[in-house]
């Protein structure tokens, strides 16, 4: 499937609502449980998504549009959310994410991206040369993979409780 900006924006616009419908109002044991040491809970993933909204996607798109390959992106701290999320409620994180995403999609629309602009190149600090289209496609995949991660973490909370049915659910078997 080829990249379509309108479809990408459609998916990106749905993520906050998807997470809110799935998670808002659940007890902490659902949103703060993880898969064990060095893994993330839904709370952590949401904080990570917020951190990306604040420091990654739109910032990098602007760098590509303004500087091309001449200025590398700032490295992204994948765990930058851990300190920033301390003391916040899950509902606050959901609200923050929704607001940040709406603002970022507005900023994206204001970039008036054309097919030519989507081919512009920037420099990732570890991957090298990337295009604006690749950055935006990655934003979509990033959202979807973290939605899947949240679902997997939640499934594993009933890992033992499903008993013999576990064999029918690859999500419970895969690491």
Jot down its keywords.
Four Helix Bundle (Hemerythrin (Met), subunit A), mainly alpha, 175 residues
Please describe what this structure looks like:
- The protein has helices at residues 5-23, 28-31, 42-55, 57-67, 81-84, 90-110, 115-118, 132-155, 170-173, and strands spanning 121-124, 128-131.
- The radius of gyration is 18 Å and the shape is elongated.
- The protein has one domain: dinb family like domain (Four Helix Bundle (Hemerythrin (Met), subunit A)), CATH 1.20.120.450.
- The longest helix is centred in the C-terminal third of the chain and has 24 residues, at 132-155.
- It has 175 residues and is mainly α.
- Strands 1-2 form a two-stranded antiparallel sheet.
- The chain has nine helices and two strands.
- Helix 3 packs parallel to helix 6 (90-110).
**Strand residue content:** under 5%
Envelope shape: elongated
Rg, please? 18 Å
Measured between the Cα atoms of the first and last residue, the distance is 28 Å
Give the helix tally: 9
Low-confidence stretches: none
Per CATH, the class reads Mainly Alpha
- Tell me the domain tally: 1
- CATH architecture assignment: Up-down Bundle
Helix and strand element order: HHHHHHHEEHH
Assign a percent range to the helix content: 55-70%
- Predict the CATH topology: Four Helix Bundle (Hemerythrin (Met), subunit A)
How can the largest sheet be summarized? 2 strands, antiparallel
């Amino acid at each position: 499937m080829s990249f379509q900006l309108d479809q990408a924006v459609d998916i990106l616009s749905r993520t906050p609502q998807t997470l809110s419908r799935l998670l808002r109002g659940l007890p902490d044991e659902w949103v703060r449980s993880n898969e064990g040491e060095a893994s993330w809970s839904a709370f952590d993933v949401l904080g990570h998504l917020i951190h990306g909204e604040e420091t990654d996607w739109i910032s990098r798109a602007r760098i590509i549009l303004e500087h091309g390959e001449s200025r590398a992106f700032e490295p992204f701290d994948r765990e930058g959310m851990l300190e920033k999320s301390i003391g916040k409620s899950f509902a606050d994180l959901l609200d923050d994410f929704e607001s940040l995403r709406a603002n970022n999609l507005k900023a994206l629309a204001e970039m008036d991206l054309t097919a030519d602009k989507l081919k512009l190149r920037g420099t990732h600090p570890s991957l090298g040369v990337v295009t604006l289209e690749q950055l935006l496609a990655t934003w979509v995949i990033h959202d979807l993979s973290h939605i899947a991660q949240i679902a997997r973490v939640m499934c594993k909370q009933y890992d033992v409780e499903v008993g013999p049915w576990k064999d029918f659910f690859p999500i419970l078997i895969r690491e």
